[in-house]
Amino acid sequence: MSTLALLGGTPVRTHPFPAYRVIGASEIEAVTKVLESGILSRFLGTWHEDFFGGPQVQAFESEWAACFQAHHAVTVNSNTSGLYCAIGAAGVGPGDEVIVSPYTMSASAIAPVVFNAVPVFADIDPVGYGLDIASIRARITPRTKAILAVHIFGQAADMDPIMELAAEHGLTVIEDCAQAPFATYKGRPVGTIGHMGVFSLNYHKHIHTGEGGVVVTNDERFAERVQLIRNHAEAVVERKGVQDIVNMIGFNFRLGEMEAAIGRHQLAKGPELIAARQANVQALEAQLAGVPGLSMPTVLPGNTHVYYLHTLRYDAAATGVSRATFVKALKAELPHSELRDAEGPLIGEGYVRPLYLQPIYQRKIAYGTRGCPFTCGHHGGTVDYSPGICPNAEEAHATVITHELMRPPMTAEDIADVARAFHKVAENLEALRDLDAKASA
Question: Residue 59 phi/psi, 5° resolution?
Fold first, then answer.
């Protein structure tokens, strides 16, 4: 048995893992052509033929819509701004409630707050980590306006029951697909099952343009309203002849021509990059078989998983070692990844602390000093953000190990090193139990 690096032994690996580089020669050539054209953007914030952006933006939107089988695609400068546009397009406003997940990036829950609505947290499914339908149903009130379902870690939430419940109550459903482009649910691309779907093109997503996002919808009215909110709606609606000006407060959420040109090539690479992730996960999971205390992620029936993160459930009772110590030992065995030197090995405890535990919800303070939107006069209801309201999310936060060490261009040798680190730690559980005992003494 070899000594753990944490205890002075030699690490499994010291040279860095390869960087997540998905930008190549074709994107460089495309950006060069944009620079040579002199058209870096062609948006105007007024009703004009350039209201919809330049040739690269419009071509990218058309290609994205075709790829994901949507009638409309609208580019934005981030998934976050896409969520804001979608919430605004749905007519969400003061006094409304939007059901959201507590186990996601913070922007998913903040989007309703931007329009002075109140986020209501439903619990997650403990297996797939998407919103749990029974919990959603229990949170619906006469104030509920929409459901924002997140496809977390690369797998779709269970959408059919959500859509049935939404239809029963006349609610708009928005899909946050930031972590799940190219994932499918019962043969359908995520993002096209609800009324609107929002994708991320941030630099660490499956495909990226540095920063960027796309909103898809099959509803022409929603598409128009997203376009307006993206690009100075208040200055456009009169000349465009828009009569419903609810939430027609414009932002500048526009994507540039260079990003759109990159996006067109990234979109074409998407299936290949997804397949590489899936193959690496399959190889890693086969090699992790037999590691005590670890459970592999479950792919729900009818889903394809695209693995933004690889999430492992850790059972401290089975190993007698705390998750914190297990992960610390793992990280000591492995190096950082290129371009992300300061982060150390890309392995972590949990994902996010349930969002309702953040100060904004615990203190119910957002806009001004009167508690808006939580306790000011528009809402008129009560909303509970107490610890314990979403036990499945809190359990996931306490038991999951996440890592990124399966992204392309990780090779078979790289994957094998990751697996060796897990097995080495598992072979030294007794030494780690001693560490835990000393720490608690």
Answer: -65, -40
Q: Break the chain down into helix, strand, coil percent, rounded to 5.
A: 40, 15, 45
Residues in Cβ contact with 195 at an 8 Å cutoff, skipping those fewer than 6 apart? 90, 172, 173, 174, 217, 219, 222
298, exposed or middle or buried, with CB in 10 Å at 0-12, 13-18, 19+? Answer: middle
93, 246 in Cβ contact below 8 A?
A: yes
pLDDT, mean of residues 221-246: 97
Taking alpha carbons only, the member of 394, 388, 423 closest to residue 129 is 394
What kind and span of H or E run contains 117?
none
Picking from 241, 312, 304, the residue whose alpha carbon sits closest to that of residue 275 is 304
Instruction: List CB contacts of 408: < 8 A, sequence separation 6 or more.
Output: 20, 22, 273, 276, 277, 280
Residue among 399, 420, 396, 397 at smallest CA distance from 317 = 399
For the cut 90, the answer to whether the pLDDT of residue 371 exceeds it is no
Q: 265 vs 25, 259, 261, CA distance in Å?
A: 10, 10, 7
pLDDT at 370: 86
Whether the model clears a pTM of 0.90, i.e. scores above it, the answer is yes
- What is 5-18+289-351+395-440's CATH number? 3.90.1150.10
Q: Alpha-carbon distance 161 to 321, whole Å?
A: 39
Token couple for 331 = 């990280």
CATH 3.90.1150.10 residue ranges of the chain are 5-18+289-351+395-440
Q: Where is 196: in which H helix or E strand?
A: strand 196-200
- Distance in Å from the first CA to the final CA of the chain: 27
Supply 308's token pair.
Answer: 């933004």
Peptide bond preceding 373 in cis form (omega within 30 of 0)? yes
- How far is Cα 99 from Cα 76, in angstroms, rounded to an integer? 23
**For 64-101, how does the pLDDT look when each residue is reduced to its tens digit (9 = 90+)?**
999 999 999 999 999 999 999 999 999 999 999 999 99
Residue type, 321: V
Indicate whether 137 pLDDT > 90: yes
Instruction: Tell me the fold of 25-266.
Output: Aspartate Aminotransferase; domain 2 (3.40.640)
Alpha-carbon Rg for the chain, nearest whole angstrom, is 23
SS3 of 55-85: the string is: HHHHHHHHHHHHHCCCCEEEEECCHHHHHHH
C-alpha 96/C-alpha 21 separation (Å) is 42
